[in-house]
Amino acid sequence: MATKSEAKRMLILKAATEWIVEHAFHNLTLEAVAKKAGISKGGLLYHFPSKEDLLVGLTQSIFEEFTVLLDEKAEKDPIKKGKWSRAYIELSRWDLENNSKLNVAVMAQSLLNPEASKTMVKSYEYTQDRLLNDGIDPVIGAIIRLTIDGLYYSQLLDIAPIEKELKNETFEKLYEMTK
Predict the structure, then answer these.
(1) Which of 18, 108, 156, 169 is geometrically suited to a Cys-Cys bond with 55, CB 3.0 to 4.6 A?
(2) How many alpha carbons lie under 13 Å from residue 124 in its C-beta half-sphere?
């Protein structure tokens, strides 16, 4: 069970994610996040002394949650061969369709110095290791990861995002490649 401090921190991170999803990222302020969380700015500053600290915490939280969910989903797959790839495909598909949390994290991370990106790099390395050692051809694992990266970045940067039907067909094709 989370301590009171951990619960408050999670509330702040959830509020920040929701605010960014609902508004333009560049308009993010500590005041707006505090208001969304229903706490004082001082309460927010206790947990995150600066906007940069909040963005680092947000990025860490999102990538850590993605990794935990990836592990849980893969462990539930009764077919060992390709289970990590299928878990990654399903989780990424859900994320892109619902709230694009990873897009938010990537945006937040892009504003920070390279030292602060360790969580993101570690998460990508972890995921890539699982995909390349998934019992399927490692080239297929790389294709899956890079295709999903492309879908995220296309949506994030609004660079010719593909239509929903084609996106769904792309995910289905990637899923087929895991068998």
Answers:
(1) 108
(2) 14
